[in-house]
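Field reference: sequence -> structure
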Amino acid sequence: MNAITRCLDTYWASSIGKKLVVAITGLVLVLFLAGHLSGNLLMYVGREAFNEYAHFLHTMLHGAGVWIARFVLLVMLVLHVVATICLTRQNRAARQPYEYKATIQASKSSRLMIVSGLTILAFVIFHILHFTVRVNAELAQIGEMDPFEMVVVGFKNPLVVIFYIISMTLLCSHLSHGVASIFQTLGVRSKKATTAIDGIAKIYALAIWAGFISIPISVLFGIIQ
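Structure field:
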C-alpha cells in the first residue's frame, strides 16, 4: 500500500503526470458534453420525449445510476481543475527572464484557460443549484414530474439565459484549445495531423456552443414552450 501511495505521489509530482490527469479527465468531460447535449436536444422533439429521457436517467440502475454519474463527473472536474492549476503554478515558477516569445504566449494561454476553467466550475455549481437542487421556489414546485416544464420555466429569466450564454462561450473557448491539447498529451497528434486536429477541436467546440445556447434562447423567444 505504501509503495502504491509513493508511486502515485511521484506520478502526481511530475508535470507529465499532471498533464495526463488533465488529458484523461478532459476526455471524459468532453465525451460527457456530447452525450449531455444529445439528450438536451430532445427538448426540440417535445415534452414527452424529453420527459422519457429524464425519467430513464433518474431510474437507471434503480436510481443509483444518475448519482454514480454525478460522482464520477464531479471527481473528473475537480481533478481536471486542480491539476490544471498546479501545472500553471509549476510553469510560472519555472519561467526565466530570457523566455522566448512563444513560451510567454503559451503562459498567457494557460492563464486564460485557468480563468475560463474556474468560470465554468462556477457555472456548473450554479447549474446544479438551479436544476438539480432547485433552490428556485418556482422550480421546486414543479419537481421531477415534468422536467420539460422545469427547463422552460428555468430559462424564462433573461439574466439566467445571459449567464448561460456567457458560460457556454467560455466553455467552448476552453474546448477549442483543450480538445487539441488532449490529442497532444496522449501522443496521437503529429505535425501532419496538427491542422486537422485543430480544425476538429474548433468544429466540436462550435457545435457544443451552438447546441447548448440554442435551448435557452429558444425558450426565451417562445420557440420551445
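Note: The chain has one domain: 18-220.
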